[in-house]
Automatic annotation (TrEMBL):
This is Branched-chain-amino-acid aminotransferase. It holds the Pfam family Aminotran_4. The modification N6-(pyridoxal phosphate)lysine is found at residue 235. Its cofactor is pyridoxal 5'-phosphate.
């Protein structure tokens, strides 16, 4: 099993400001319910007490959908500007059968989490990064996009309205999923005439069934996640269904997830199905460069910055598979997975 040294444990601890202090990351964009008191008064439903928790078995949370009370929705008007959004009870979304998102996959999503502190506040992590990444993806898919302010404001409202679904400290998080989609009807291949931005939330525990145990990763050399010139560098909804077959095959063999190689040469690392990957060798931490086929993860960027602050040499570059097999440590990062240690790597007949 790949061991974890004390230096890396310290690095990972620095990425946990939400359940302890914010000393390392206070300069970044964390938002609390105290800072959003005006929004809280405007959006707080009167159907429950501020200190009330939803009826959830917090000790047995997995990563599944348990819908929170409210959804935030905002529509794009004909002139390409998003109007004022609103909160409404969670429920199904009505779409035309000819909606662009259903027919042509014109859609993006983001993911972030709300953490509850011991004193009852909610903390959100670097939302401006998620907002900027959505704008980049929207441009690639020819969609208008909410401004960074609109995005951040909408996520804050959603978190506050669903506060009772945020697990107690140390029990999990409130996963928040913003979606941007071409909701207007279209028959010929073209951008949609109307767009919808919505956000829903669900309390979650660990992403992997292994919990905090080290993961077993299988290196995939038949299927590919992304290609040069494609949409691998954005959170397009079309990026994820194609990995399901490789994931299902790997999980049927007892592996936690799949690591993909570059589609051109099948020799350099790309990323895992839903997260970025890092290698540690001595004092050097390496991760594949974001060159258009790899998602620029918010957690990934945070690890890079914190590692440099801790004195590590960080390299963002092409990483041959052989280096992965000889690394001292390997770990994955992402909003859903957090920071997950890797215990074994399997490639063909080598483990």
């Amino acid at each position: 099993m790949i061991q974890t040294n004390s230096g890396l444990r310290s690095l990972v601890q620095s990425l946990r400001p939400m359940t302890s202090s914010l000393s390392k990351l206070e300069a970044y964009s964390c938002y609390t319910s105290q800072a959003a008191s005006a929004l809280q008064q405007a959006t707080k439903p009167n159907s429950y007490r501020e200190d009330e928790y939803a009826k959830v078995d917090w000790d047995n949370l997995g990563f599944g959908i348990t819908p929170a009370d409210f959804v935030y929705t905002m529509k794009c008007s004909i002139d390409g500007k998003f109007e004022q959004g609103e909160l409404a009870p969670y429920g199904n979304v009505e779409l035309s059968p000819s909606a662009a998102v259903l027919n042509y996959g014109q859609g993006l999503y983001e993911g972030t989490k709300a953490y509850r502190t011991d004193d009852g506040r909610l903390l959100l992590f670097r939302l401006d990064r998620n907002a900027s990444r959505m704008k980049m993806g929207a441009d690639r898919l020819c969609m208008p996009c909410p401004s960074i302010y609109q995005f951040v404001d909408a996520v804050k409202q959603t978190a506050l309205a669903n506060k009772r679904w945020t697990p107690p400290p140390g029990k999990g998080t409130l996963y928040i999923r913003p979606l941007l989609m071409g909701s207007g009807p279209i028959l010929g291949l073209a951008p949609a005439p109307e767009y919808t931005f919505l956000i829903y939330a669900s309390p979650v525990g660990n992403y992997f069934k292994e919990g905090l145990k080290p993961l077993s990763i299988y290196v995939e050399d038949e299927f590919h996640r992304a290609t040069r010139g494609g949409a691998g560098g954005i959170k397009s909804i079309t990026n994820y269904a194609p990995v399901l077959k490789a994931m299902a095959r790997a999980k049927s063999r007892g592996f936690s997830d799949v690591l993909y190689l570059d589609s051109a040469n099948k020799k350099n690392l790309e990323e895992v199905s839903s997260c970025n990957i890092f290698l540690v060798k001595g004092n050097v931490i390496s991760t594949p460069a974001t060159n258009g086929t790899i998602l620029p993860g918010v957690t990934r960027r945070s690890i890079v910055e914190i590692a440099r602050d801790h004195g590590y040499q960080v390299e963002e570059r092409a990483i041959p598979l052989d280096e992965l097999m000889d690394a001292d440590e390997v770990f994955c990062t992402g909003t859903a997975v957090g920071v997950a240690p890797v215990g074994t790597i399997t490639y063909q007949d080598r483990r």
